[in-house]
Amino acid sequence: MANTTLSVGDAAPDFQLYTHDGTPWRLSEQRGQPVVLLFFPGAFTSVCTTELNTVNNDLESYDGAEVVGISTDAPAVLDEFRSSEHLSFPLLSDHDAEVCASYGAKYDRNFTDMNLDRIAKRAAFVVDPDRHIQYAEVLDNAGKTPDFDAIQAALEQL
Fold first, then answer.
1. Which residue segments constitute the domains of the chain, with CATH numbers given?
2. Does residue 107 register a pLDDT over 90?
3. How many Å apart are CA 115 and CA 49, to the nearest integer?
4. Which long-range contacts (CB under 8 A, 24 or more apart) does 145-153 make?
5. Is 44 within 8 Å of 65 (Cβ atoms)?
6. Which of 12, 103, 108, 126 lies in the 20 to 30 Å Cα band around 135?
């Protein structure tokens, strides 16, 4: 599946993935509340750990949004990562990277020049209660983190 570029105002592609504990999670079932999708390259890596802990430590400022992290790690890995970091929001496994690709957040064999094809780019999307994208940020540099202030500002506008 080719990477798609999504912009503010676009309909957010629906998907179903499994959480860290094997529970199905579907975007379309989150109606009535905003959702923050945080794609990240890999559990237990330094920048991903910093990013998700930053969000977790400031979760109340995400204005009642459902926050989820998404990576291509297996559910068991995400479960251990979530537990070890004491994260309070779900982590979703996109093991085949299909959802990452549909959001334009998948490396195409160019992740740090290692020719890996199933790695999520670091990305953030704010999806409004009507399933439209109100904020979109996809980073090619895995060493950078999303603009947390811009994410929160987009949520405040809803």
1. 16-156 (3.40.30.10)
2. no
3. 23
4. 145/47, 145/50, 145/51, 145/54, 146/38, 146/51, 146/122, 148/54, 148/55, 148/58, 151/36, 151/62, 151/124, 151/126, 152/61, 152/62, 152/63
5. no
6. 108
